[in-house]
Design goal:
The chain is about 40% helix and about 20% strand. The protein has about 280 residues and is an alpha/beta fold. The chain has a six-stranded mixed beta sheet, with helices on both faces. It is globular. About 40% of the residues are buried. Mean pLDDT is about 90; it is low at about 1-30. It comes from Streptomyces achromogenes. It is a lipid-anchor.
Amino acid sequence: MRTSVAAVAALALGLGLTACGSGTDSGKGGGKDDTLVVGATAVPAGEVLTYIRDHLAAKAGLKLEIKEFTDYVLPNTALQEGELDANLYQNQPYLDDFNKSKGTDLVSVVKPYLPPMGVYSHRVKDISGLADGATVAVPNDITNEGRALKLLAAGGVIKLKAGAGTDASPRDVTDNPRHLKFKELEAAQLPRSLDDVDAAVVNNNYAQDAGLSPTKDAILLESAKNNPYANLLAVKRGHEDDPRVKKLAGLLISPEVRAFIKDKYHGSVLPATGS
């Protein structure tokens, strides 16, 4: 019995040491050799990164692996925990709120493009057609809900109190002449809600995933002027100077990628004017 216990203890110790070693390796983003592992939502981030991987990365001496996500939380937790080296899908207000609420330490490296948020409807052709008491679905996370309300205010259907920021909520609505009702849903569910509500304010990536064209189908679309919601390449603080990250950042704002974005999205995604 003593021999068996000793053997089990030795095996457990060996497994423990192996697990510690694996944890150290996973902190490098899970890539092979010097591969840069980047998390992204499928559209447009995944498509932009795929274009870079297939056409530009090798010439720049960059090995790129793309991991796609369908939500807005896991790409940041995976980055914080070292399962990714970088991610591309979010904007600065969302990242700031995520760091504050989740205790993460993620920073922006470069902002390559703007995916405008839009209002979509199966029932009306124009934002002015929303009837009294209409139900409008909006994202249920703080920054995207605030963004949605600001878009509705820009369209003239509601007014927000002076100074309402990126975290605006329905409580900040000071004038609602059409008595709109707001239905808060997870961002990914918004396109599927269009048969059940009068309109929905949908993030660009989920709209395109659902086959909606922001420039053709949106009844109200964000303006690019002074827009703070450009998507950014994020890394864990202290990794900004990783040579692989710098190579990808340079490619994301290269003339080739700007041309790809213009040609593929026809205004539904816009190359950012600055980094």
